[in-house]
Design goal:
342 residues; alpha+beta; 3-stranded mixed beta sheet; 9% strand
Length: 342
Amino acid sequence: MPPEGAHGQSAKDPTPADARVDAAPVLGKPPKPDDQLPASLAEQRERIFGRMRDELGYDAASLDKVRAIVLGNKVIGEGHPEASVHPMKRSECWEIRDRAGLHQAPELAKLEQNAKLCGARHMVPVLGKDRAARAEVCIDQYEFPNIPCEYPLVYASAQEAAQLCRAVGKRLCDAHEWEGACAGELRPAEEEYLWERKRRLEMEFFKNEKREKVWAYGPQKDHSKCATGSRKSPKCNGGGWETCGSNTYPAGAFPECVSPLGVFDQHGNAAEHMSLPMKPEELGRRGGLGETEMKGSWFIFARGEAHEDDCRWRAPAWHGTRVDYWNSHRNYHLGFRCCRDL
């Protein structure tokens, strides 16, 4: 794996710096089927930038920020092009979603309504128990770059994930926001964090002891509903860039693996960075960042129980650092999604 923080080659953005992107196509409508896998990381990245422009409508200034962060690291992308073997094509993902009715008029109208409410495409409000109350935060429906049937971006560190969210006018989700979006009910931060406890052992133990077990798709565990069936690359014995492919599915390819609020792939596919506030002032809505927290992932779940994966489970402090630490964790099946305050 190349050294952390090493710089990749820059690429010229053909879009003038002062240009605004034209209106993106109708939300959720599949583009022309494209199963071509870029032969190089540079081509892979350019494709991602183009899809973010065309599907999400990001302007040139936002894309310049995204480009600078991604090109500032030699490994961020959809996975090593030579090592990654994706279990599903993009066109297969669109066919599955079509059969599930996700491109029908009622669903598309709901997408447009949420886009207006959240101020960004492919986001949904994270609601509390009182559904009539105004939501205070929205969350991406899909793993970054938050586009259905595209492969998730992986190998971003926690710090870079937070930077990429900021680059597109969002922020990294707090753990309780991600968990509430998964379980279908956002609970007050004061109920979800044990501010007075130390993270290791105490915070994990007492949070997990009292939690209600529920998965995005319902009260009974069923890995087959989600993107858990991928396999490690044959030569992947650690986390090396050259030998470990991301081996992810296209985002949103499992219509049953969706939360009551409309969030896909919180079990399976890429694991996800989020921020775990250790005190109230570290909450994302207050402009703070906490320690690293990771949940999700396809990693070996079809063949072994890698770890608990219910929505409100507090994960151990794997590779624990501050989110904004320069050498925070990254790996080949680790991505993220973003939140946005209303």
